[in-house]
Amino acid sequence: MKIINDTSANGQFVACEFNRDLDSHRSPLSNKYFPDLPDGQQISKRLRSIEIKANTAFNAYRHLYFEGGICSVYLWDIEDKIFGFGVFIKNEINTTLRGGQKIHGSIDCSDVVEVDESSSTASYTMTSSVLMNVNLDIGLSKPLTISGSTADRKVRNMPWKSDDDHIVNIGELVESNSSHFRDTIENIYVSKMKQIVDLIAKTDASANQAAVANELAALFAKRRGGA
């Protein structure tokens, strides 16, 4: 995933495989392709209406659970009474700790849902993943990399009567998955923390190891959507 500027809507959006046509990506903000692609694929009017509402709703979710980042929601037609619904959050990290250590990288979250609304109880098949790739520059010959990923798949049947119900139902699924992913990212972070602190101590004998560790912990707690 990467972030692209929508010059028409004066905003940014997440570019991924689910909004790509050839070498261009469709913005959920303006519904235009960047770079410009006059004959780019367009979704149905109904799905576009859901997409607009979903972007508003999930950006409120991003604001509550993440510090920064860009959230984009895309819908796409699959077949009669079945469509795709994807929520993508890219959280870029580029900061400097008080001790001068530089951190840069990203945490990417995606939830891709196949919605089957062929009955009054819709079936939601959701595949979720989180990818973390962060570099910490502590003065060594190359940055120390903290990376890891996790994925999950679940199927839920939930009642629906209107298009808004799909947004609410998928929102509940995404939120329920967040706790599991936060724990997984926490484990990745903890497994690397001792190594980071030890290396900081070796490269800077005056470094306050506890302070650096606490600052890193606070940073990742915010970036991964922690409380």
UniProtKB/TrEMBL annotation:
Main location: cytoplasm
GO molecular function ontology, one term from the record: actin filament binding
UniProt entry tagged with the keyword Cytoplasm: yes
Domain of life per record: Eukaryota
Coiled-coil segments on the chain, per record: none
CC per GO annotation: cytoplasm; F-actin capping protein complex
UniProtKB keywords: Actin capping, Actin-binding, Cytoplasm, Cytoskeleton
Gene Ontology process terms (BP): actin cytoskeleton organization; barbed-end actin filament capping; cell morphogenesis
Leader peptide range in chain numbering: none
Compartment(s) where it occurs, according to its Swiss-Prot or TrEMBL record: Cytoplasm, Cytoskeleton
Subunit structure: Heterodimer of an alpha and a beta subunit.
Record's function text: F-actin-capping proteins bind in a Ca(2+)-independent manner to the fast growing ends of actin filaments (barbed end) thereby blocking the exchange of subunits at these ends. Unlike other capping proteins (such as gelsolin and severin), these proteins do not sever actin filaments.
Record-stated family: Belongs to the F-actin-capping protein beta subunit family.
Identification of the protein by name: F-actin-capping protein subunit beta
